[in-house]
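To whoever picks this up:

The parser on our side crashed when reading a file containing two proteins. I've narrowed it down to the boundary between the first structure block and the second sequence. Both blocks are reproduced below exactly, byte for byte. First block:
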Amino acid sequence: MTRPIEETMDLARRAVTHYVNRTTDQAPDTYALDVSAYTDPDRYRHEVERVFREQPLALVLSIEIATPNSYRATEVCGTPVIVTRDGEGKAHAFLNACRHRGAPVCADGRGEARQFSCPYHAWVYDTKGALVSMYGGKTFGDVDIEKMGLRELPCVEKAGLVWVCLTPGKSFDIDEWLGDFAAELETLDLGNWYLYDQRDLPGPGWKVAWDGYLEAYHHNTLHAETVGKYTVGNLMLHDTYGPHQRIVFGRKSLKEIARKPETAWADPSEHIRLIHSVFPNTSISGVVGDHALVSQVFPGPNPDSTLTRQSILCAKKPETDAEKAATEGFSQMTLRAVRDEDYNMGFQIQKTLSSKANEAFVFGRNEPALQHYHDWVARLSG
């Protein structure tokens, strides 16, 4: 599924209008959020439980487990998870804990395996989670094998992502969760990209880190030497789909097409950059020269830490020296922009939170995506 050219033209038209008028999409009013939303440990635990453990998460890219009998093992909000693709090609998710004495049956990472053997007592499970053998089974005693498979988590594959709920037994309807946003994600064709690299970055607290993904207000200042070279600061289009959001940044090439009739806009997609913000923690950052960045921000054990998994995608595997250089250049630019700029600033903000300098943070009308996000956190956490 590809985005209709008429829709892309409309987005470029909206961006050009803002560029000419020096405006941006806006919320109806400013918005104040008490700083305790960033610091209170009880509130943090409650929100992580309700938002991250009870709602569907876009946990793994389909291309991370592209082949039958492949897997990704990871820890999410303190929960060890294995996502597998079985021999028939279906995705599953399980708690990464042997049903005998709880040892992880697989080390964190990606790979291929038809079976997982517990390193403690050699109980063996297949990619469907079934217990298939027990070392010394004849001497162990009676066990209902059917009930001793890995504890399964609700799991659905859609739009190039594997969606998982971290609470066993809690079902979800992915079509209801995504609504019209599903069609937006389908236009990205995520299942057919090449996964060039992945890395995990330590970051500041969940909300401090995530706030930076939701606005262009800081691009001219903080990102002057990276993404700010290409995007127009404080210009953003904002569209919502339930808790999810589509953000569009204007590229500086808007200046060129603003002077031309629309009939002369050869490819309007070259002048805008789309960000698909999947609630609550996944950002799929626009296609730039056949490259994209997927960022997944996972809350840490306390309010002031996160882990971010960056996935660098390209339209096809780079083969030539020029292609390899372009892909590595994109990878290094995104690393610098997030680790050295956004998160470096975020760590500094984290230090001031307990200083009482601010009782509340004020989000401007020009930061509608921030307002929308924090509204939905409040709504889903009660």
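<<boundary where parser fails>>
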Amino acid sequence: MTKKRYIFLVLILGMLIALSPFSIDMYLPAFGDIAKSLHSTTGRVELSLSSYFIGLAFGQLIYGPLMDRFGRKVPLYFGLCLYIIASVGCFLSSSVDMLITMRLFQALGGCAAQVACIAMVRDLFPVKDIAKVYALLFVVLGASPLLAPTAGSYLTLAFGWQAVFVVLLAISVIVLLASFFFLPESYKPDRSYSLKPGPIVKSFLTVIRHPQFYTYAISGSVAFCSLFSYVAGSPLVFMDVFGLGKKEFGWVFAGIAVGFIGAGQVNTQLLKRFKSEQIIAVSAIGQVIFSVVFLTGALNGWFGLWSTIAMVFVVLFFVGLTNPNTSALSMAPFPRNAGVASALLGAMQLGLGALSSSAMGLFSGRSAVPLATIMAVSAALASFVLFIGRRNIVQPVESETPAGAPVH
């Protein structure tokens, strides 16, 4: 693969994976305006974020088998079209309940982009390059919050909260056109792949029983809860507790996202000298240490605005180091059923993310303690799963497995 084609493919895949973070982050500064416009509360509006996470998690379990049966692009087109229709519904929402429902369908469509992206990386690149490609894609994930909440705050101030969904609609149309004209089909339809419930369940069980998959997928997904709790809780912590306005919140959110971007760049360099397993182990320990410090400081009232920003920044930096590597090692053993593996990985991340974001909405008070608690608990559990699960991995899959070769 030429360098030019390599960069081009990563750019298109980056557009796919950026759709969800834009959908999540862009409307966060508008929570208060949405609540006021729809005669509701910020807590109720937060449920539209939880419904989006639930839709992402559930939808991926549907698209995984479909992409292994029909190829990657046809289910992708269907999902993007559903996202476009749901975006119109969000724009027209006249109640919070309607917005919550439309966000669910928006997620059910948009998750096709994420499943296709993760599976296509496994299809198009050798296993030895997967972690590097994921690191580049996570730079996109980190860059998205630099733009999304800031743009959302200005859009809301200038045109009202509905303008956010107009922009999301336009982005999804661009992604659909780019996928149709420029993205190659990376996996031929497999007519032998059954869509009956029994074989689908068996396929999922085959993947989830693999020690390398469940170790890195579960530990990475639990660690990723820190990000979801931050996304859901950041308006409360920074706008309600510390009194930031929409513009200031957008810039703080963007600044913390630099941690993700930095993590992606650092990870790319570290992979030249260290294995993914080594990076994950050090990152997991770092996440535990700093999240516990954050929780201790929050409980004792040690942290003001800037120290809270610093602690969240560092914790999410370690999440940014961990996730590309756990994703790569989770996907590595599955050259054939990458769609199912991608779906399970995404469902774990987003299902746990929905729980953590819901917890922020249910238990948050006027302090950073709930956010720090979820970050500390998720870091500790992720490390426990990682170091226990690694004992069951007899022979890690780190190099290319020929297509069609059995995975034991």
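After patching the parser it read the second block fine. Residues 399-408 have pLDDT under 50 and may be disordered. The chain has 14 helices and no strands.
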